[in-house]
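call fold(seq) -> tokens
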Amino acid sequence: MKSFSNTRASTLQATRSPSSSAHSSPRRRHRARVVNGHRGSAHFALAVFFALFVCFLYGPTITIATLSFQGPDGGLTFPTNGASVHWFANLFQQQAVGDFGGSFTRSILLATMIKCLTVVIALLAGLTFRRRFRFSNALFYLIVASLIVPSILVSLGIGLMFNVIGVQPTWWGSALGAHLTWTLPFGVLIMFAVFNRFDRSLEEAARDLGATPWQSFRHVVLPLIAPSLVGVALFGFTLSYDEFARSLMAAGSDNTLPLEIYGMTTNVTTPVLYALGTLTTIFSFAVIVLCGAIAVALQRRAVRT
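ret:
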């Protein structure tokens, strides 16, 4: 009976396969052509969009870098006049307008303070929100709400608040608070994402082996989240170092580097301003590469241990 059924099935398949393949083959080929055509159009549109994105992202940087390598008689616009590093050397000389060294130092110190505070507070917030508590949702939205407030209004409000209470706005005081309203929500969101996918069984195993809460955090949790903490530090440093709007009304009389560059745009008529922009861009990329290398090293170390 079984052999008869197999024979009948094979006979039916043999009799139907030529006609069905004859009808399905052209349809299949047509469908494949349509799918490939749509896919090709989508890929082309995506490639055009990506090319425009790269142009808008790196075009201004390349333009400024090109104009900064002009000769002593170079101007602010194209065509370029000669090629040299004259304007980079001019940066370290006494300038009639602008305080490059002071503003750069203030920006580095402010960004470093913001980086440390963002890492510590975001880590503590991530650990706190691992367990539900009363008004946790309201506190979360209160932290994240500063991202949707216009930066210039935050800067203006902090500057006015300090003036009302009779305290002079400074880059290390009022500007520090203004920058934290920008960097801290990003750090908190990153830590929330990290702890949401963190395997709690690792901590439980450490507890079962007799580790204290501090020991389980120090030897289990911290090595695993260390690369993410480096990312939070990078966010805090770069966002503060480049921040203009939240520094405008809150930094006081001493400018940070973005404010100094903005003030020089109406007074400086030489490519020295472009040389300064090129150096700050190189510095920013160097910080990103350094933090990336540290994060990779920490991750490999965590995997080995």
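The mean pLDDT is 83.
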